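Protein in question kept underneath.
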Amino acid sequence: MGADGRMEYEFNRHMVELIAADLQRDERIRVVIVNREAKPISLSGRAAAARAAGADLLLSIHHDSVNDRYLKAEGQPDGRVLHYCDRFHGYSVFYSEKNREASQSLDFAKALGAAMRRQGLMPTLHHAEPIKGENRELVNPDLGIYRFDDLIVLKSATMPAALLECGVIVNRAEEAELLTEERQQKAVAAIHQAVTAMEDKLRDD
């Protein structure tokens, strides 16, 4: 849940629609949205759906939180209690060495991170903190790339796969920014650059 009470799914769904609409304008790219109907689906089921669709790449879109120890509670006039943390902000990219195309998954993660940086966006490094629930290997701090081998949607994918946390929605300022068209279009442009770069690389290979 974001700092203002919006659920992460709302952010994810909207971004996926923007990304798909943008990529579909490129005649070289066919886009398949996994679970467009928002039905219950397991993490491994998402990877299986990508495989069934014959996908060359799998990109999982998310919006980030922080470790519970950092969250602060804020009561609302309607009686709700919302949680926030303004300490961390930025995107992050994850890949798995247990993916059967681990090397190309890392290439995809690097392409995403580099494209996000070209859009002027900065990574968050808080997932590398040596605390329970984090402690992820930060393989490229400049690009915000983490290794997370047992992330199910990534390790069970049969094609190069990466997961992008677009930003930290429990950070009040960043959540507001993530709701703007300007910030959303930066992520869309970065993803387009990364996907087309990977498609070219896969064709050459």
Q: What stands out?
A: The chain has a mean pLDDT of 93. Residues 51 and 158 are 7 Å apart (CA to CA).
